[in-house]
Every structure is written in structure tokens, then in C-alpha cells.
Amino acid sequence: MGHVSVAEHRAAVERLLADGSTETVALDRRAAGRRLAADLVAADDLPRFDSSAMDGYAVHPDPSGQCRYPVVGDVPAGAAPDFALAPGEAARVMTGARLPVGTAFVVPVELTDASPTGPAPVEVTVTTAGWTAGSTGAPAGVPPRRHVRERGEDVRAGAVVAVPGAEVTPALIALGRSAGCTTVEVRRRTRLAVVATGAELVPAATDPGAGGIHESNSDMVAALAEAAGCVVTRVEVCSDDPAQLRALLDELDADPQVDVVVTTGGVSAGAYEVVRQVCSPLPTFAFVHLAMQPGGPQGLGRYGSTPVVCLPGTPVGAFVAFHVLVRPALDRRHGVPAAGPVRAAYAGRTRHTRAGRVQFLTSVLHADGTVTAPDARHLTALAAATCLIEVPEAVDEVVAGDVVVVHPV
Ligand SMILES: Nc1nc2c(c(=O)[nH]1)N[C@H]1C(S)=C(S)[C@@H](COP(=O)(O)OP(=O)(O)OC[C@H]3O[C@@H](n4cnc5c(N)ncnc54)[C@H](O)[C@@H]3O)O[C@H]1N2
Ligand code: MOO
């Protein structure tokens, strides 16, 4: 069997999983991390009205330039003043309060003779430097509209505040909600089922006996899928019995809560390759060996109408294959833009790799921008890894100083 390129297979997985479904959800913390599928449009002006940026006094100066004003009203945040300021009048206002009509500027309470607490005074004197009798309008050093948040100065009603593909971040939640939005249209989260296969697999906390091993891929892949924005609706472990796998895949295909299935194991060349045995006779399936290490043996196709991606059983191979092949396709489904390559300077020991296959080395990206890769392919190295170094097919050695492409994991 010839080797298929990583890029070719990645594109095939992307085609198989392509889906642009969207849904409308509440614009709240549960939407964080989702990607917009439509423009987010401000429903209201932000601020909704001219409001005070300070606790203090709204002033309508009069031409005589006096600095002592009668206080004609008291406006806490949340109130709607039912009066207007005439020339020579002031009103006490709190931060965020709607300003009375006629306000020219706001003087912070610290720049007056008034007490910051207690009832509003009958009169207030502005004590700010530069305010001298005889000056007109705002005192020197107090620009017009000082400490006034103008209606709509941040966003106007009807303005697009975020476009499709934008992530719903905590800040976007604040912006959208402040601008009166209650919902967002986002890409739907993929409902994903994981099926780990293998006769040797036993659950955690169960005696594996002489030939068994503790099963780990199912929850590793489920956690990777959740980190990619999926909702994992089923996590199954299946023996090497083709009838059992067939029954399980029939059930998953019929389950409306399952959009995509990812299997692990049973795809290589041995006698008990249950995934290959069950799926390769189906005309929609293809099993290939990618020019990639680890994670070379792969399959993909549709079981019934359900897309199925078949990863190899070795935990490191399954992890790498998920990152290299499945994650990009899930990102496209979820509206996450493709990230450009990240480059780093290799600072580890010389690593000899096998030419003719893309090698992914479990690696650690350091704060100084350099990257190192422990020698082994063991799970301990994977657990310590923060990225994968991609060594191209044509390269058979990585030496200190080489600039390498890394994929954060
Ligand atoms: N003759 C050949 N043998 C193998 C080839 C090959 O080309 N020719 N490819 C090797 C490569 S590379 C890989 S990767 C594996 C892939 O094999 P399978 O996908 O069929 O996986 P299994 O045989 O089921 O398991 C491999 C390995 O991983 C352990 N495993 C499997 N599932 C789990 C799990 N859920 N949790 C923990 N560990 C798991 C399993 O016990 C095996 O040790 O094939 C090579 N062989
Ligand atoms: O492709 Mo396999 O994951 O090297 O062991």
C-alpha cells in the first residue's frame, strides 16, 4: 500500500466533516468560546444616553462666570431626570446617571465644596483651579463635555460590533450585552462519539489480568474533542468482535445526538483489526497508511450517514493524528479560522528522523521561543509536551539552530 500525504488526508477529513450548521444561543457566559456565524449588530446606542463619568455635579454655567450654583436636582444611577438645567444651575449626579438636559459638563465632587455623602446640598461651589469669577462657560482646564459619556460614543445602534468567525470572548459578551443584544448566532458544536476498540482493553480500576491493559484512548480523545469545542455525547469501548462493533455503529448512526464518530485502534495490518474488518467493505470507506509518524494507519468514511474517522490505537499515534487531522476539520466546522504556522528555533539534541514521512516530535516550547524534544515517543514525553514539531518528509535530521514548524497542543 502506497503512502498517502498528510495534506491529502487532512483535506479528505475536512471534506468528510464539513458542516456549517448554526444556531442562535443566549449571549451569556455559555456562549464564550463559540464563533459567530452572523454579524453581531448593536441593538442600542452605547452609552444609551448622555451619562456622567464621575460622581459630582452636572453644571450649566451662566455667562456671569459665577462658581456657586443652586443644586436643583439629585440624580442617582438608574433615574431619569425630569428637569432640565437652566443657565446658572447644577444637579448632583452619580457615575452612570442619565444627565439632565442642559448639562454642559460634570465637575467631580472632589472639585467642589460639597460632601461626597449625605443628602444633596442646596448650593455647591466649584473649587477647581482655573475657575475664576467672570470667566464664561467652562472654567479654564475644564474642556466642554468634561466627564460626560456621550450617547452612542462607543457604539451606535445598528453598527456591526463583530463579524462571522469572531470568537465570543468575555469582552464581546460585555460589548454585545451593553449594546442591548440578547442572543448570538454561532456555529453549532459538533456532537461527537468516541469508540475505542481492542480485546485487550479493560476499564480503569479493573484488574487487567495477564494480557489486558488499562484503556485510555477513549477519554483522551473525548477530552481532545471537548477542547476543540465538541460536545462528547457517547464514549464507548468495544471488543474486537465485528458483530459488536457493527451493532454499536448502527446504534450511533441512528442516534440523533451523534454527528461524528471517532474510533481508535483496529486499523493496521494484523489479524484482528475490527474497525478495518467492519468498515473497509463499505464503499464509502478508505483505509490508508499516511506518510506520517506517529499515527500512520488511518481510515475514514461514512457509516450509514454518519462520518467516521478511524485513528490508530497507539495512544501517542491517536493523539498526534487527532491534532494533525481531526482538529483542523473540527475547527472549520466550528468556524475557527486556520492559524498560520508557528516557527521556533530548535535548541535540543540532534534528532535523526526517518525521511519520506512527516515526523511529529512531542516537544516543549520555551518562553524564549526555543523548542526542545525529548528523545522518546513515550506517553511521558507526550504528557510533558506543549507542541509538536513537524519535521517535513524530505528532512532526516533536526539540529540545534534549525527553524522548525511547531503545532501547539
Ligand atoms: N504489520 C504491521 N503492524 C503494524 C503496522 C503496520 O504498518 N504493519 N503499523 C503500526 C502502527 S504505526 C500503528 S500506529 C499501529 C496501529 O494499530 P491499530 O490502530 O490497529 O491499533 P491496535 O493494534 O488496536 O493497538 C495498537 C496499540 O495501542 C494500544 N491501544 C489500543 N487502543 C488502546 C486504548 N483504547 N487505550 C490504550 N491503549 C490502546 C494497543 O494495546 C496496542 O499496544 O499498528 C502498528 N502495527
Ligand atoms: O503510526 Mo504508529 O502511531 O507510529 O505507532
TrEMBL record:
Keywords: Magnesium, Metal-binding, Molybdenum, Molybdenum cofactor biosynthesis, Transferase
A UniProt-annotated Pfam family: MoeA_N
Source domain of life: Bacteria
Chain ranges of the MoaB/Mog domain: 193-332
InterPro entries the UniProt entry points to: MoaB/Mog-like_dom_sf, MoaB/Mog_dom, MoeA-like, MoeA_C_domain_IV_sf, MoeA_linker/N, MoeA_linker/N_sf
Enzyme class, spelled out: transferase
Keyword Ribonucleoprotein: no
KW Glycoprotein (keyword) present: no
Cofactor: Mg(2+)
Catalysed reaction, written as an equation: adenylyl-molybdopterin + molybdate = Mo-molybdopterin + AMP + H(+)
Pathway the protein acts in: Cofactor biosynthesis; molybdopterin biosynthesis
Annotated EC: 2.10.1.1
Family affiliation: Belongs to the MoeA family.
Function: Catalyzes the insertion of molybdate into adenylated molybdopterin with the concomitant release of AMP.
Protein name according to UniProt: Molybdopterin molybdenumtransferase
Organism name: Terrabacter aeriphilus
